[in-house]
Amino acid sequence: MTSFESAPGQVPPPDAVHPRDSSPETPTSVTRLNETIRDFVQRWSAVWVEGEITAWNLRGGHVFGRLKDASGDAMISFRLWSSTLQRLPDTLRSGDRVVACVKPDYFVKSGDFSFTVSSMRHTGLGEQLEKLERLRAQLRSEGLFDPATKKRLPFLPTVIGLITGERSDAEKDVHRNAELRWPHVRFRTIHAAVQGDRCVPETLSALQTLDADPEVDVIIIARGGGDPQTLLGFSDERLLRAVAAASTPIVSAIGHENDHPLLDEVADLRASTPTDAAKKVVPDVAEQRAIVQQLRSRARTRLTQRVSHDIAQLEQLRTRPVLRSPESLLTSRTHELWTLRSRGRDIVGRQMDAADRQATHLRASLRALSPGATLDRGYAIAHVGDGVIVRDAAQAPAGTAVVVTVAQGSFAARSEGEVPEAPASRDTTRGDSRMDS
User: Fold this and answer.
1) Which of 43, 253, 384, 405 is in the most buried spot, having the most CB atoms within 10 Å?
2) Are the CB atoms for 43 and 57 separated by under 8 Å?
3) By residue range, what is the domain housing residue 384?
4) Which residues contact 205 (CB under 8 A, 6 or more apart)?
5) With a threshold of 0.85, does the pTM exceed it?
6) Does one domain contain both 150 and 104?
7) 251 belongs to a structural domain
8) 381 forms bridges with which residues in the sheet?
9) For 190-210, what is each residue's pLDDT tens digit?
10) Plot region of 399 (φ>0 → left; ψ -120 to 50 → alpha; else → beta)
11) Quick one: how far is CA 408 from the chain centroid?
12) How many whole angstroms separate alpha carbon 341 and alpha carbon 321?
């Protein structure tokens, strides 16, 4: 008896029934069915398939995604294990067009059918990506990526220049979000092809027109997301150098958060999405009003504190005795002035008295030493010739005319010669002579 055979009248267990031998009386189990499907799927060989990544979810180091056909009518799920992910390019993301080597796999427990990726790469972009990397290195060496060369955006632009596709979601996003933030914002929009051969020339023409407009304060170049192939126009060297040479600040809003054309590096500001560009270019009127209100409140508080502080200081000064009764300061100073004046008068009086006494003493001394005082005591001065004072009797021999000066005037006399000394009657004054008038 085989594993699929049973004794007569006995129903075999479901796990023992092969799906091809199942019947309403002898059904197979779900596990047996899934194992049969798995065994059948595992005999399939790996295939290379081309499509666009529409989902790229990283969980636990593994990637779970979906790959869509170019026509959009078919889609497969794929799993990319962490060991394989480490060997793939780091630039793979949702929206990329790729070729992948996949092998079908069927999971018994969940009944899920999926494909396991063993290799994946961009399709048709290998050489172009290499060229872009060389261009990136060249522009970086020339300083086009240098943050110091970036122009600052105006706080509130008068007119915003917008280069985008006609009737595109990017245009709607920029307008809607900008107008929500600042209702009176103005736009000058020029439509251009955002992919294909017309992308670069039309974008260059629009950029030249807006850059020459004196009313345009900032220019936004915007488009929605896409695979690297469709975004190649925004890594064109002609466009990049035109952006670097523009006098108007330029904002790059190309694709989604993960899209990075070279325009992002050269532009003065990179926005992750068109919506983000509107938020970065236009200030939020509600936020600005809140800031103004906050500044007003802070200024009012500071001013109130300052006035209150000054009032308190003024009140403190007013309560001081000198300000409460100013005449008290004058009264105390008046008494001090009267005391100093009295003291000064006393000092000057004493000094005057001392000076007067000294003058009197000096006057008496001068008078005692003067010739007039000597003449007052009865002495006389004899002069001969042209006023020579006679100090020796020999100076006035007999017959010499002599002028004699006494206390009260002078008179003329003539010498009769030297008088012999008479010790008994000799006067104490030496040099006296006998003279006739």
Assistant:
1) 253
2) no
3) 374-436
4) 192
5) no
6) no
7) yes
8) 405
9) 999 998 889 999 999 999 999
10) left
11) 106
12) 27
